[in-house]
Design goal:
Blueprint (H helix, E strand, L loop, with lengths): L5 H26 L15 H34 L2 H10 L4 H35 L7 H33 L3 H24 L6 E3 L4 H12 L7 E4 L10 E4 L6 E5 H6 L2 H16 L2 H23 L3 H5 L8 H41 L2 H14 L8 H7 L5 H8 L1
Parallel strand pairs: 2-4
Antiparallel strand pairs: 1-2, 3-4
Cofactor: Zn(2+)
GO biological process, one term: CAAX-box protein processing
Membrane topology: Multi-pass membrane protein
Amino acid sequence: MITLTAWGGFILLALLLAHGVGAWFAYLNHQRWSMPLPTALADFREASQQQLAQRYHAERYRLESLVGGLELAALLLFWLLGGFVWLERWSNSFGLGPLGTGLIFIGTLLATTALLGLPGTLYSTFSIENRYGFNRTTLATFLKDRLKGLLLTLLLGGPLLAALLLFFQWAGDWGWLYAWGMLTVVSLFIQYVAASWIMPLFNRFDPLPEGALKERLQRLAQRADFPLEGLYQMDGSRRSSKGNAFFSGFGKRRRIALFDTLIEKHSEAELEAVLAHEIGHYKLNHVFKRTAMGIVHSGLLLFLMGLAMQQPALFQAFGLNQPTVHGGLVFFTLLYSPVEMALGVVFNRISCRHEYEADHYAAQLTDGAQLGQALKRLHNDNLTHLNPHPGYVLLHYSHPPLIERLRALG
């Protein structure tokens, strides 16, 4: 049993506060289903469809509340019953030195967290999403995805974690700077190759078939002076009936992908407007800005992590008398969680502003009414909450709610 220190009490309070804020706004968001729809959307969704959406989100709310509460309880029990002390001793028992011990320590925590989250993911995918007509994933596909994700974690995440531990062990106070440089280079490289090397491991990307739609979209790219290197159709229907589109990569590996479910449900004019929105992100330098923000964010995180590792009281809060790099990485992550929540609000606001700007760009380049129609169809098909709570939006929405996007489009 761990005796709570002053630092331990502060971290415990921070974790409870972060969870409590998230749970409170999730509850308020859930309660908003009983309110009438905004006037502009009153006739947008039939009563039966709204009731279906309400039941769907009620089930998701209950599951997410249960899983979130259990995960927090498991973490606190593990901590207060001396789990980190035991794990440190067990990791050291292999005699693999600081690097090997650190990899075992963090790897065990990550694997345990993944296993604890697996039942909730399975229930969400094969029960809730199944009953509401969204899931198209087979158990075989689900297991293959998890296996591929595990292999990628081992092949990419393992060496990255090892390098991170070595930098902090070798460079001391300047370890954060070396780690920041490494992570920046690696993240830029992954962005460059993700569309060509990583995403195809999970989905098939076929060039958009020849025909009227492709010709229309190519003419759009020419009007926008957008160097379209690749326009692809992604087999999103293998896993879900929900539609989407996204822009990825840069340079010669830049590509735009449309889900086959999106193509199936939308008119050519709506798809043109959706593509114009994605082009807008590129033309307005949103990709560069988000990448720059991510780099600055990781630098701040690593700098503060370096400072925290110099505080013996942080390790004593978790029952460890001897500071270690791997322990510092884990404990700082817990200490930093409320700050991360606050930064998430800032990043979400910036992301929402980018969405408004891309919508405006698309409305100028094509027909804003068609973009509005596409957004309405997407939200209706996906049973989206049409009247979310503002606090929940701040915490979780990287895209503005539908009513606000439609108002901005006029």
